[in-house]
Amino acid sequence: MIKKLVELQEKAKTEIMAVKTMHNLNEVKSLYLGKKSPLQEVLTQMKDLTVEEKKEMGIAINAFKQAVEEFVLVKRDLLQKDLINEKLEKEAIDISLPGVKFKDANYHPLELVTREIEEIFIGMGYNIAVGPEVELDLYNFEMLNLPAGHPAREMQDSFYINPTTLLRTHTSPVQARTMLENKNKPIQIICPGKVYRRDDDDATHSHQFMQVEGLVLGSNVSMADLKGTLEYLLKKMFGGDRVIRFRPSYFPFTEPSVEVDVSCFKCNGKGCALCKQNGWIEILGAGMVHPNVLKMAGYDPEVFQGFAFGIGIERVAMLKYGIDDIRNFYTNDIRFLRQF
Ligand code: DAH
């Protein structure tokens, strides 16, 4: 009987080692250890043995079971290793393949225009100034020669925080702030930033928009410098063939004041849809700083003169990129923004 068990064990070993799948392994295992295994036959014959023989047989049977369990464990390990290797081979990563392209963000068109304007002015030796968006009436109006009750305040109706504080209606208050900081020293700054007005939103108006303010003060600054500066700026932005023209205008903080037009960069001044058939595009407001503004900020108008200007960034971006609705800038449509 023991001999039979040893034979059975050898057979089990060979069969177990030959299986190819986990499923087969389990089948073969129960074939040798399960209810229908040849082991049962051995067990039924046990009753005819002597006590001594039974004891010996018991040990042999346990050894057989242990051995078969052992073979199964070893084989299971081998099968598992095979599975892992097969998987590794199948899922091998080719590190020489190009990766998935990461779509990185691009600058917002308003940021692009702002940066372009900044670059141009930095190249001319200007500094970049900043000011708060929540501003005092004092700087937003009063010190710009717009006292309480001045009719020009009406054009810049705003959002008031309280009777003396409002969301700035233009970047011009930075003029007053910069002058107070630099008392009696020359100034050459631009200030880009957000401004607010109580305006109905439509294709060309928004209650929040962006401007770039410019201020130059010195003892020998003339209107010719203003013209040269703006011509340089507009040629850089809209092409070397551009010419500019000044039209008389009115701003309380400049005297004289001008509205600046640039010759249409699309039709070269002949007249087209972009320039509404008149060959010129209105682009910004400017002028020579009003003596009252200088005085209020502690500058002596007999010593200092200067010019100032204000550019609407949305308007420049709309012209430059051919955008027909200002609301495109603010609605965060990724299809629109990805074009820049
Ligand atoms: N602050 C004016 C506006 O928002 C624009 C402007 C005009 C600014 C003339 C200036 C300037 O500095 O000189 O309408």
What does this structure look like?
- The protein is built from eleven helices and ten strands.
- The chain folds into two domains: 89 residues, no CATH class; 229 residues, Bira Bifunctional Protein, Domain 2 (BirA Bifunctional Protein, domain 2).
- By secondary structure, it is an alpha+beta fold.
- The protein is 41% helix and 20% strand.
- A hairpin with a 2-residue loop joins strand 7 and strand 8.
- The longest helix is centred in the N-terminal third of the chain and has 40 residues.
- The strands form two sheets. Strands 1-5-6-10-9-8-7 form a seven-stranded mixed sheet. The protein has a three-stranded antiparallel sheet with strand order 2-4-3.
- The site of 3,4-dihydroxyphenylalanine has 11 residues, from strand 9 and strand 10.
Furnish the topology, listing elements before pairings.
Layout (H helix, E strand, L loop, with lengths): L1 H17 L3 H12 L4 H8 L5 H40 L18 H15 L3 E2 L5 E3 H4 L19 E3 L2 E3 L5 H10 L4 E10 L11 E11 L4 H16 L5 E8 L2 E10 L16 E10 L1 H6 L8 E8 H9 L12 H4 L3
Parallel strand pairs: 1-5
Antiparallel strand pairs: 2-4, 3-4, 5-6, 6-10, 7-8, 8-9, 9-10
Helix pairs in contact: 1-2, 1-4, 2-4, 5-10
Bound molecules: 3,4-dihydroxyphenylalanine.
3,4-dihydroxyphenylalanine (DAH) binds next to β9 and β10.
